[in-house]
Amino acid sequence: MTEFRWAELSDYQNIIEEANHAFDTAHYTGDLEKDTSRESYFPRILPKLYQNPRIAPMHVLAVEDGRICGLVGAFELPYMVHGTEMHVVGIGTVSVRPGYRRKGYMKELMARAIRRAKDEQADYMVLGGRRQRYGHWGFEQAGAMPEYAVHMNNINYVYGEDADFGFRIRKLTAEDTEAVRAERALREAAEVHMIHPENEEFDILCSMGAVPYLIEKDGAFFGTFMYFSSDHKIHDLRLLDKKEAGHVVNDILRAFPEEELNFTHFGPDEQEMTEIFSSLAESCGITPAAMLKILNYERTLRAYLALAADIRTLPDGELKAEFANGERLCLAVADGRAEVRKLAEGEDADLTLGEIEAIDLMFHPHTWLHSFGNQIPAAVRAWFPLPFYENMSDEI
């Protein structure tokens, strides 16, 4: 007999043991005490979650014969988007124990996680995963994240082979309390950021195996970044003075042994940094930020359309749409100001959009490749994709 239920605090260690077994079978020992240690897989790669018992009730479980055999994490992720606090739920640690798969557990667990998010009036949900797999539940790729490849030849040509702008790079530690506090202030100044408890700030910089680094100038704090040695990527570069981004990149590249580093995960509102990287980098690619499922179109579109209007000039226009959950909205821009309102009774929509179609039109990084017919005015098409993004430190 299989029981599906939401976890309690007392399930914490068993949740970690199950997640370790499902995702890291090569290192799973079967020893519950060892596999829930600080060094085990999930506490190591996601310390902000799995070194914190408070997240246990954010999991829905499949339990068979008294043992957890499947789980889905549905994490509360309060976000600030252009000054509006959004209720976001992040899906993660989606797993079924080997030997219990192909029994429909995942469908039931995902359905329950989505149902609770709707019941609790979440604005949208995010996850990272295979596109078609999660498209079944209405998730689709969203956001246009630039990734810049900067080679040593680039900085040698631009700044000279011996250029040194005086920035010193070293690993950030939990003992660097003033620097961690300064990093938190920079992160929270961004147009889009998650609201984290202050005592978890350092742990979020260690997500997914990242090593956080501190940037200093004349012995004082200047910024931070997250470094991933597995693919030579630098994420979440945060600087006191963004005009210095090129000089900082010069000194970072000279501090690391790699001939090329990839920089990604800073938001579309970081226009100064975007311009510098675009002129300095050897190449630039665009990738999605996350998989997105919208539950409240009015609040979600209002926040992100307002952000778009604030960071770039949007042409005047109007789009009236009906969405899969029954919401009927008018999106409008006039004199650079964005508005989202409910359609009045009897007011016709220009088009009807399913869950995936709405994201493909408004948030997908390749929205310009999609055809929505002549129902979409050219001015309105210029609004999209809306500037949805996630910091790497906020990912689940």
- Architecture of the largest domain in CATH? 3-Layer(aba) Sandwich
Strand content: 25-35%
CATH top level of the largest domain is Alpha Beta
Counting DSSP H or I runs of 4 or more residues, the number of helices is 14
Terminal CA distance: 31 Å
Global Rg: 22 Å
Helix content: 25-40%
User: Would you identify the regions where 5 or more consecutive residues have pLDDT less than 50?
Assistant: none
Count of discrete structural domains:
3
What is the total tally of β strands? 19
Q: Would you write up a description of this structure?
A:
With 396 residues, the chain is α+β, with helices and mostly antiparallel strands. The protein folds into three domains: 2-122, Aminopeptidase (3-Layer(aba) Sandwich), CATH 3.40.630; 145-287, Aminopeptidase, CATH 3.40.630.30; 295-381, Nonspecific Lipid-transfer Protein, Chain A. Helix content is 30%, strand content 31%. It contains 14 helices and 19 strands. The protein has helices at residues 12-23, 32-35, 41-45, 47-50, 105-119, 131-135, 152-159, 177-188, 201-204, 245-255, 271-280, 297-311, 355-362, 378-381; strands at residues 2-6, 59-64, 67-81, 84-96, 124-127, 140-142, 145-151, 167-171, 192-194, 211-217, 220-228, 233-239, 260-264, 283-287, 290-294, 317-323, 328-334, 337-342, 351-353. The strands form three sheets. Strands 1, 2, 3, 4, 5, 6, 9 and 15 form an eight-stranded mixed sheet that branches. It has a seven-stranded mixed sheet with strand order 8-10-11-12-13-7-14, sandwiched between helices. Strand 10 (211-217) and strand 11 (220-228) form a beta hairpin. The longest helix is centred in the N-terminal third of the chain and has 15 residues, at 105-119. 43% of the residues are buried. The mean pLDDT is 92.
